[in-house]
Design brief:
The protein has 312 residues and is an alpha/beta fold. The protein is 43% helix and 21% strand. It has 10 helices and 12 strands. Helix 5 runs antiparallel to helix 7 (204-215). It starts with a strand and ends in an 8-residue tail after the last helix.
């Protein structure tokens, strides 16, 4: 039995449940929402899709039904109001987490906590501080979707499978994120060398276009349909599968990271090893001097946006 709880049955929470069922990433999914009727509707709708996918049991419940969950996905929170700053949004969602996290911990003390609510980096820090769990057991989706976007756009540019592209987006899941070109590879070949070899060099114009395609993706999607949910749902289902199977796979995830000589302490994305017990390791990416400075700036941006008050 691999039970997954999802707190928040809005567009993201519902899409996560659907992606889990389609991927078969859990044996049971429990949806919890402050509006029980919404949780019931989403659970019933997803359950009806399981004959076409995997035999995942999907149901609505209360916090008590999260007992025994291996992972609880925190997709709860409020939307940003017109004219509202990110800091104001943070304060309102931190208040939601202050209510939700202790209730989850009370019934599922062994569960990993996976944060997908924005601003995801600071809320990962908030959830970690509220939970009292080791840092590796509380983590956010971070830049996993940004990394996927980066790889997808590179694959289109180079005419290869995105699964053969190894490139990361680090730091904040937001405007200050850092696309790391320096250590990127195709297979074991440096990205720039591969691009030259296939006659598709990644000059400044191409890099700028890909950067905008990654960095501005959420803005374009939100402008067109109001919010994003499919990408993060697919990413979350993939993470749950990695946890269930103890894959120890590498993903760019957000988690509290102590200060070092290069960056202050904060929760932000780095390549991290994910298994059944949560994050079991963090990799030190190969960065150019410019990328290292950009990553430091990204971390400082998160601190200035409200993260500093949640540091231990």
């Amino acid at each position: 039995m691999f039970r997954v709880g999802i707190v928040g049955a809005g567009m993201v929470g519902g899409a996560v449940a659907d992606a889990v069922a389609l991927r078969g990433a859990a044996s049971e999914v429990v949806l919890v929402d402050r509006r029980p009727e919404r949780a019931r509707a989403e659970a019933e709708d997803v359950l009806h899709a399981t004959p076409f996918a995997w035999p995942v049991h999907v149901r609505a419940g209360t916090f008590a039904d999260l007992t025994g969950a291996a992972v609880v996905v925190l997709a709860c929170g409020v939307a940003q109001r017109p004219g509202e700053t990110r800091l104001q949004l943070l304060e309102r969602n931190a208040a939601v987490f202050a209510e939700v996290v202790p209730r989850v911990r009370a019934v599922a003390p062994e569960a990993l906590l996976l944060v997908v609510t924005n601003p995801v980096d600071i809320l990962t820090l908030v959830a970690w501080r509220l939970s009292g769990l080791p840092a590796g057991r509380v983590f956010g989706s971070g830049t996993i979707l940004d990394t996927a976007r980066f790889r997808a756009l590179l694959s289109v540019e180079l005419g290869i499978s995105p699964k053969s592209v190894h490139a990361y987006v680090l730091g904040e899941h937001g405007d200050s994120e850092v696309l790391t070109w320096h250590g990127a590879t195709v297979g074991s070949v440096p990205l720039s060398r591969f691009a030259e070899a296939v006659g598709r060099p990644l000059d400044a114009e191409v890099r700028a276009r890909i950067d905008a395609g990654v960095r501005r993706a959420a803005y374009r999607i939100i402008a067109g349909k109001g919010a994003t949910w499919y990408g993060v749902a697919a990413a979350t289902a993939r993470l749950l599968q990695a946890i269930r199977d103890d894959e120890r796979a590498v993903f760019t995830l957000s988690a509290f990271t102590p200060a070092d000589r290069d960056r202050p302490a904060m929760a932000y994305s780095l390549p991290r090893i994910l298994g059944r017990e949560g994050l079991v390791g963090t990799l030190a990416p190969e960065l150019s001097a410019e990328e290292a400075e950009a990553l430091r700036h990204s971390v400082e941006t998160l601190l200035e946006a409200g993260g500093a008050r949640w540091l231990p």
